[in-house]
From TrEMBL:
This is Bacterial surface antigen (D15) domain-containing protein. InterPro entries: Bac_surfAg_D15. It comes from Pontiella desulfatans. Residues 1-24 form the signal peptide. Keywords: Membrane, Signal. Gene3D superfamilies: membrane protein fhac: a member of the omp85/tpsb transporter family (2.40.160.50). Residues 141-411 form the Bacterial surface antigen (D15) domain.
């Protein structure tokens, strides 16, 4: 069975609309450029087709700010043949007034899906005794409902005055032929005080999913720390990144329940040999795990369980991409990912005039493989038994200073086309 996964609310066309406004805390000086590429406004119409949405038409776009090259605003809207629709508005890396190292990234999304699939929720009478979303659950154990969704997110990041960001919060790279030549942002020392970028994260997040069967609501707060010691943030060639975070819902709203989830991630980047046909080859590796100490997996009411779309969950845009979004979720989860990224010597985009508005700097192809699983407890042996797999190929491109990606991924439940912006890790 063929599946198409498009991000709920952003879609591939928005990935194309994001790059002209970078939304990144860096600027790039390429070759003989005397300054950073200026942000511009772009609007992109798009069309798509998926199993659950039907055929859709939409519009995506972004607006960058010359005065704040690290910031942008963006939006997307679509309507589909089965009556589904979406509206998304957001901004990235807005500098907080009076607090020079604090950046805020808000967004709001409202959507209606007439055939939303959820691998979880109420017990499915067609699969008695089986927990939907568990590691051994059937791919057909889902509910498909007429559903609405509202999401509000307010991400706040404070850049600590350490390492390469000791003096400034915006890093300047010097590249030649899309390869970093001078001024890396990390990978020069293991000491966070000397190398890389360290960030404190605080994020209030609200999401309400209501179907004809039930309403799922959460208002949780995430607190985290991240140390990014990669040499070149948009396309790392060496270095590493790690983060730790904790999320908690205090059960302040009518349809919420109290839950807690902790997670950690480590990503590493290993430079490989170059060849006559490649400009750069990189092995990118990722490990991630999450655990919910509040979840009583033996409880028939799933007491303390995080919502299916957060905490220990796998499947979708970032981890186990061959599976549907949030296909697996439980008390604990683990994930391993690897990508072989190759930037070919052949980069023809400067010679293709009609592509100039997209400001394509380079492209690369990717071979990817992933394994992971969820479990009712954090046990090393259990988490490494009967793991799920996905593998595939991808195409990445850099538009101004943003990354767009398109991954073709296979698993034992079918095939997925995943489109999004930003490298996976």
């Amino acid at each position: 069975m063929r599946k198409s996964i498009f991000p709920s609310g952003i879609l591939f066309a928005l990935a194309l609309s994001l790059p002209p406004g970078t939304g990144a805390q860096y600027v790039i000086h390429e070759g003989n450029e005397t300054g950073p590429v200026k942000s511009r406004t772009i609007i992109v119409p798009y069309a798509f087709s998926t199993e659950t949405l039907g055929t859709g038409l939409g519009l995506g776009g972004s607006v960058g700010f010359d005065s704040q090259p690290e910031s942008l605003s963006y939006g997307s809207a679509y309507g589909t043949s089965n009556g589904s629709w979406l509206l998304l508005l957001g901004a990235s890396n807005l500098k907080a007034p009076g607090i020079g190292r604090l950046y805020i990234s808000p967004y709001a999304m409202f959507t209606r899906q007439t055939q939303m699939r959820i691998h979880g929720g109420v017990d499915n009478p067609g699969h008695p005794g089986e927990r939907a979303g568990s590691n051994d659950s059937s791919k057909d154990n889902y509910i498909e409902e007429n559903a609405g969704e509202a999401t509000l997110n307010l991400e706040m990041r404070y850049i600590l005055p350490w390492g390469h960001y000791r003096e400034n919060t915006i890093h300047s790279y010097v590249t030649r032929n899309a390869i970093l030549q001078e001024n890396p942002s990390g990978a020069e020392s293991w000491n966070p005080l000397e190398s890389g970028k360290s960030t404190l994260l605080f994020r209030p997040y609200y999401r309400n999913v209501f179907t004809d069967v039930e309403e799922l609501e959460t208002l949780y707060f995430e607190l985290g720390f991240e140390h990014d010691n990669r040499d070149y943030l948009p396309n790392p060639h060496r270095g590493y990144k790690w983060n730790l975070g904790i999320s908690h819902d205090f059960d302040w709203l009518n349809h919420t329940r109290r839950w807690t989830s902790v997670e950690g991630e480590i990503d590493g980047f290993i430079p490989l040999w170059d060849t006559s046909w490649s400009r750069q080859q990189t092995l990118a590796l990722s490990w991630w795990s999450a655990y919910s100490p509040s979840y009583d997996a033996s409880s028939p009411d799933h007491d303390g369980k995080p919502p299916y779309f957060t905490g220990p969950t796998l499947g979708g845009l970032w981890r186990l991409r061959g599976y549907p979004s949030n296909r697996f979720h439980d008390k604990a989860a683990i994930y391993y990912g690897g990508e072989y990224r190759v930037m070919p010597e052949w980069q023809p985009f400067g010679e293709i005039e009609f592509l100039d508005p997209l400001m394509i700097r380079w492209w690369q192809f990717v071979a990817l493989a992933e394994v992971g699983r969820v479990a009712p407890g954090w046990n090393v042996e259990t988490l490494h038994t009967d793991m799920k797999h996905s593998y595939g190929l991808g195409i990445r491109g850099m538009f101004n200073t943003g990354i767009g990606r398109l991954d073709f991924v296979f698993c034992d439940e079918g095939f997925s086309l995943v489109a999004m912006f930003g490298q996976t890790f």
